């Protein structure tokens, strides 16, 4: 096929000394790719995934591909997945699950068998269809570039330049056998509707459509690279790394052009939906410079985005609650509180105290008689209530944290200390009235929190 070697060399996809793993379904594209690699003397093995989606057809595909591997005298690898069952278990579509299973398996095969890259048979019509499909769903510049020629994960696409017509002509010229996937004939899937109904119309408008595709994709990729450079620079300017996550000043974000677009680009790797992000930003910037809805939160599978007092916080999803810590003997060593820091304890007679009650919030003084062992240290929970020092009545711990202006991103990491079944210290924030030092206090306990940095 004219242009095959030139394309590989131009994009430095691989060379004759490299060992390739070729993904072969048995369809015409992958059979042509296999034959071209064999004809030009490349070293490769064949990998086939049986997704068990088409009954006897799927089983016949696997046998066919294995026979072709034997014909070419190359290593053959195959695996079978119950894709529909796995998709149901994951709560994903069959198409998404199949893609994840396929590339996940390839990632295991390559290091195990010494393959340096995975070659797939995506071609120019596939690239165009993907661009159009992404366009119908709403996409950015990256989506408009379609299928990349190569990926950072080691996937290469040597037929990216070739049209379906070129591939069919080569297969006929070489007398190659291939399998037909009957699901490609139905318009049940959006990609097939684009392939059967949209692309033919575009080709009648411009028969040279695919010939211009590389130049168009090149422009889009260049523009995308420039945008990403700008996004990286502006992210570095507004992102303030903190122990619990990343903080962004709302005013700094708003001072930039197209802040919502930037927010979307910055946060794309964290999985927030475009709709949720748009609603979040509009709630933050509802009217001019007025901040509204403190505590507004949106979540992805891995992260939370929180608006709190003129700042936006990007936080990882909370880890499972650490186990409560029961202290039954006087702690001679620091007590580690995951996510908060560590607490040290000391006790002394009142006669050795200077009488200073003005301590930082990380230091707490107690009447030892009211802070008897055992102690229970745990993360605070909704519904926790205690009487703060100096107040006449009880208060929810959640309200105390809000009134004390503990940033929302940090509240989930706050611990409490219980003694006698009551909260005696919201650690790092406030002690309880009951455990205060009085005229009758004989011995004092001082607990000090060293926060996580």
Structural overview:
The chain has helices at residues 4-10, 28-39, 56-72, 83-90, 94-113, 124-137, 141-144, 164-174, 190-205, 209-238, 250-254, 259-267, 274-284, 397-403, 408-411; strands at residues 19-23, 43-50, 76-80, 117-119, 155-156, 239-242, 245-249, 297-299, 303-308, 311-316, 325-327, 335-337, 341-349, 363-367, 375-379, 385-386, 395-396, 415-419, 422-426, 430-431, 443-451. It has 453 residues and is of the alpha+beta class. The protein has 3 domains: 3-223, 3-Layer(aba) Sandwich (Rossmann fold), CATH 3.40.50; 243-316, no CATH class; 325-451, Phenylalanyl-trna Synthetase, Chain B, domain 3 (Phenylalanyl-tRNA Synthetase, Chain B, domain 3, 3-Layer(bba) Sandwich), CATH 3.50.40. The chain has a 5-stranded parallel β-sheet, with helices on both faces. Strands 6-7-10-9-8 form a 5-stranded antiparallel β-sheet. A hairpin with a 3-residue loop joins strand 19 and strand 20 (430-431). Helix 2 packs across helix 8 (164-174). The longest helix is centred in the middle third of the chain and has 30 residues, at 209-238. It is elongated. Keywords: ATP-binding, Cytoplasm, Ligase, Nucleotide-binding, tRNA processing.
